[in-house]
Write a structure and sequence with these properties.
The structure is a homodimer. Chain A contains ten helices and twelve strands. Chain A is of the alpha/beta class. Chain A folds into two domains: 131 residues, Nucleotidyltransferase, domain 5; 172 residues, ATPase, nucleotide binding domain (Nucleotidyltransferase, domain 5, 2-Layer Sandwich), CATH 3.30.420.40. The longest helix of chain A is centred in the C-terminal third of the chain and has 25 residues. Chain A is globular, with a radius of gyration of 20 Å.
């Protein structure tokens, strides 16, 4: 018998659970994220999380269990998902308390998903050895987790790290959060789609438009795939995304003077194109660049699984 | 006989020194800031700082002296003013080392001016009682000092808090730092001047244009003065400035989840108009506003003297 540590990451499309043993992922299970807006906030989400937990704990003998859950949006220090523009059906949910209704014995810790990813990369991955680093997850939106002097920077209510909603273009496109021109309208997976349609409409993607039928049909994935295959017009759009990524990193550098960025999330799959582009633009965008030591921008080690790993690590760290 | 603590703040127009005793300013002296670009970086600045120190220490009997110096720009942890877009003649200067050439006995600590102001307000002023707060100084540019868990957040090289160079309008006006659309192009004293000329040219300041002769002659001071006197067209421009101020505060809130902002610097003299406007706009600009506890935006207690006070406090804290 032994102790069991689970990490569950709730994303826009899937709920992914992992078993972490001695810093190694030894098992995993996933289900589709429910988007049920007929029930109270987070009920469907909690059900899915509980299903994943049950599946994994049944597979592994244990006499002690802790579960960490990563959720997308503003997580309060009390564990409430206070605002979730990219998962509105879970906005307002208190998943840990809701899980206790299923099983009062369950020890659960909830934290923002990108904060979890930051902890995973800092403790075990691409941020090891850095006292200060920022994790950036490029998915539907942009998540952020700030490690300052070795610890997660949480802020007054626990909401720190919502970097995707930093406005970088005051008159820019509307964001589900209510503002205009948020960083995540440009440098996320969703941003690639938007910039791709813009480029297609402006006649800058003739090959892709011919292939997809019309400008409206060009999706972000078409651009990342074509860019990876070396199609010049698609590479140009990815470089534009890289520029916007660098702009946000430059802002974070001005504010926090962090020298190390770890980039994860779905879009980081395109990192071979994106990261060198961002690194190059960063040099010209950051204030007093020549007076600073080099800034490193690296791909996350754990990719899409980093949130779940970090949730597991945080649960062990905080719940013992 | 006793110990003497001096704080010196180097601004764009004046070098201000104060004597701090038991948290109270008991004396001060100021000289004009020299802008001599014929000599090596910072030589003229150092000379002026030394003149202020000499004047003040001659006035007060003491057997122990520490001096804190606040400088505008990117201050390294080693005390070098690595980059100073708003005081180019001092860019690259190591003022503490240069002062040692005048007097090897002198114990000097140099820090960024807004960082100093943050410490002053946090320890003794409008930020007392807050573990986390951000000081914003609205002068020629925008300076920032971040207090996190009671301590100054310095970052890797000591450059943290350069919030004025956060880009908020990617296609916006050029900044001396090299970028476009930095926050300080909009919400600083310089920003008021720029927005005033823009409004005048667009026909939104007919009374002021008539008074000043032409649109080009309308300065920021004209707008702040007219707004204070209740002139509607000027109040509208100040409200625009307040909107931009709020935008930057909203970005900082998203990133750091700080709930308390202290606003200082020359432009804060217009705070009776500016702060209520910023506070009102902040509510609609900050992500998940309704899920957050109220955010407070208050005027600095020490005004233009806060940098000098904080420099003195930091010198005592760090040099003993």
């Amino acid at each position: 018998m032994s102790s069991l540590t689970l990490g569950v990451d709730v994303g826009g499309t899937k709920v992914l659970g992992i078993v972490l043993r001695d810093g190694v992922v030894v098992d995993s299970h996933r289900v589709a994220t429910p988007h049920d807006d007929q029930r109270p906030a987070g009920d469907a989400t909690t059900e899915a999380v509980y299903a994943v937990i049950n599946e994994l704990r049944a597979r592994h003998d244990h006499d002690d269990l802790v579960v960490g859950v990563g959720l997308p949006g503003m997580m309060s220090r009390e564990g409430v998902l206070a605002f979730a523009p990219n998962l509105p059906t879970a906005s307002g949910a208190d998943v840990a308390t809701a899980l206790a209704a299923y099983d009062p014995q369950l020890r659960v810790l909830c934290e923002n998903d990108a904060d979890c990813a930051a902890v995973a990369e800092h403790r075990l991955g691409a941020g090891r050895g850095y006292d200060d680093m920022i994790m950036i997850t490029l998915g539907t939106g942009i998540g952020g987790g700030i490690i300052s002097q070795g610890e997660l920077l949480r802020g007054r209510s626990g909401f720190a790290g919502e970097v995707g909603h930093m406005v970088v273009d005051a008159a820019g496109p509307r964001c589900p959060c209510g503002s205009r021109g948020c960083w995540e309208r440009f440098a996320s997976g969703g941003g690639v789609g938007r910039l791709a349609r813009e480029a297609a409409s402006a006649g800058r993607l003739p090959l892709l438009v011919a292939q997809c039928g019309d400008a409206e049909s060009v999706r972000g994935e078409d651009v990342t795939r074509a860019a990876a295959a070396g199609v010049e017009e698609a590479i140009a759009v990815m470089d534009e995304v890289g520029w916007w990524l660098a702009l946000g990193l430059a802002n974070l550098t001005a504010i926090l003077d962090t020298g190390h960025f770890v980039i994860g999330g779905g879009l980081s799959e395109a990192s071979q194109l994106l990261l060198p582009s961002a690194q190059r633009h960063l040099e010209s965008l950051v204030e007093g660049s020549s007076a600073r030591p080099p800034i490193t921008v690296v791909k996350s080690q754990f990719g899409e699984i980093s949130g779940a790993i970090g949730a597991a690590l945080l649960a062990r760290e905080r719940l013992g």
